[in-house]
Every structure is written in structure tokens, then in C-alpha cells.
Design goal:
The protein is built from eight helices and nine strands. It is α/β, with parallel strands linked by helices and 233 residues long. The structure holds adenosine-5'-diphosphate (ADP). The site of adenosine-5'-diphosphate has 10 residues, from helix 1.
């Protein structure tokens, strides 16, 4: 589905991501973990072509318009006027080549994904009136409208209360079970170590890459999840 080969990304000549390689097969879930500032978001933007690579390359085996992206959340602007339906529909924007109008299929896809995420009843509400967890679901529905096969998410549950965060987590698990390939940047090492996925633990370079079952056994994981914290790695 995606090959990432020796990818490096720099800001102003300063390397922030160095020599990262991994392969993703259809249905994989790769969790990218590491401390703040370790280059996770930069790597994802590099993969998406939002930042130029300073080395290496990517090979996508899906078309670019089948790749969805949920960027890291910045606090929502209080005056954001759109309805939930409009926010979700805007996920279809990159599918529309020349038409300024949404098609019936766009609307059907928006409705289907709102249904899927349990926010269909909120469609007509102003986006800003939603709780943090509901807003995140609306943005997930938006990303799902854009996506066919591969979804990249930058800390999808950051800033949510524990209940909303676990709901988002459960949704992602369900999507993955339905066959969606996922790359998820996460702070949560423990959920990354749950069996069944792949883990990339990075700090500019790769510290670990492999199945989550193996990750859970590493000294790196044990050290980072020890009560005294993750200093030293
Ligand atoms: P993470 O997602 O792991 O927290 P980031 O990819 O956001 O890490 O950042 C990696 C490093 O790149 C950090 O040192 C950060 O300060 C730096 N950085 C991020 N964005 C920019 C930018 N636009 N310009 C310059 N440096 C940046």
C-alpha cells in the first residue's frame, strides 16, 4: 500500500526526520510513537507531500485521492460558522475536479460517514456548538469521506477527555477491522503496544520498527512506560 524508503525531512537544513523506512500492507495499522518533538508530525507531512523530503522517497500503491489525513488539532476557532454537515462534506473537496457543487454521491458519503460515527443527528448543528469529542468525530467523518483506503491521523485523541478518547480509539479499531489501513501518531505507548498492530518508535531516526507484540517486550517500551518516566532513551 505504501513504501517509505529512507525518508528524511529538514527544516532550514536542520534534519528533523532521518532515514525512516517502513512498508505498509493493506489492512495494517502502524502507530507512530515518540516523545514530543521527535519528528512524528513532520514525517507524516513528508509522506503526504505537504513538506519536501530532503532524502529518500515514498511509493504509494493507492491513488492519492484515496488517502485521508486528519491533521493535529488546534483549538477550534470560536467563530467557525459551518454546520456539521458542511464540515463533513468538505472532505469531498479533493474528489471534485472541476465542479463547484457537491454531487448526490458526495452527500450520500457524508451522511453514511456521519451515521458510521454516530453523529448523524448533529448534521444541522453548528460545528462550534459540539463537544470536543463530537467535533473530533465530525473531523474523522470528514477524513473518511475523502479516504478510500489509507487514513493518516495525527494524534486523533489528543485533548479529548478519557471517554471521548477511548471512543475515537474504538472507532479506529473498527475501521481497521473493516479493512482500512491506518497510520496513527499517538502519545499512548500502551495502546500502541496492544497486539495486532505495527509500531514505529522514533526520535528523529527509528528506535524501533516491528510488530506491537515485539515492541511490548523491548527495553525501550518498558523504560518509557516505567513509573519514573522515559528519560535516557
Ligand atoms: P512531533 O510530532 O514528534 O512532536 P514535530 O514533527 O512536530 O514532532 O517536530 C519535530 C521537530 O521539528 C521539533 O524540534 C520542532 O520544533 C521542529 N519543527 C516542527 N515544525 C517546524 C517548522 N515549521 N519549522 C521549523 N522547525 C519545526
Amino acid at each position: 500500500m505504501l513504501d517509505c524508503r529512507n525518508v528524511s525531512v529538514s527544516y532550514d537544513g536542520k534534519p528533523v526526520v532521518e532515514d525512516i523506512s517502513f512498508g505498509l500492507a493493506p489492512g495494517d495499522c502502524l502507530r507512530v510513537v515518540g516523545e514530543n518533538g521527535s519528528g512524528k508530525s513532520t514525517l507524516m507531512k513528508g509522506l503526504l507531500g505537504l513538506l519536501p523530503l530532503s532524502g529518500g522517497g515514498t511509493v504509494f500503491r493507492v491513488s492519492r485521492d484515496e488517502v485521508g489525513y486528519l491533521p493535529q488539532q488546534t483549538p477550534a476557532r470560536g467563530d467557525f460558522p459551518a454546520s456539521v454537515m458542511e464540515v463533513v462534506l468538505s472532505g469531498r473537496l479533493n474528489r471534485r475536479r472541476f465542479s463547484p457543487f457537491y454531487t448526490r454521491r458526495d452527500r450520500a458519503s457524508a451522511e453514511e460517514n456521519m451515521e458510521r460515527l454516530g453523529i448523524a443527528s448533529l448534521a444541522g448543528k453548528p460545528y462550534r456548538a459540539l463537544s470536543g469529542g463530537q467535533q473530533r468525530r465530525a473531523l474523522l467523518a470528514r477524513a473518511l469521506c475523502a479516504v478510500g483506503k489509507l487514513l493518516m491521523l495525527d494524534e486523533p485523541s489528543a485533548g479529548l477527555d478519557p471517554l471521548a478518547a477511548s471512543q475515537v480509539d474504538a472507532l479506529l479499531e473498527k475501521l481497521n477491522q473493516e479493512g482500512m489501513t491506518l497510520i496513527v501518531i499517538s502519545h499512548d505507548l500502551k495502546s500502541a503496544a496492544r497486539p495486532g498492530g505495527k509500531v514505529l518508535h522514533m526520535r528523529k531516526k527509528t528506535l524501533f520498527l516491528g510488530p506491537s507484540e515485539d515492541y511490548a517486550k523491548t527495553a525501550l517500551y518498558r523504560h518509557m512506560t516505567a513509573p519514573e518516566g522515559g528519560r535516557g532513551f
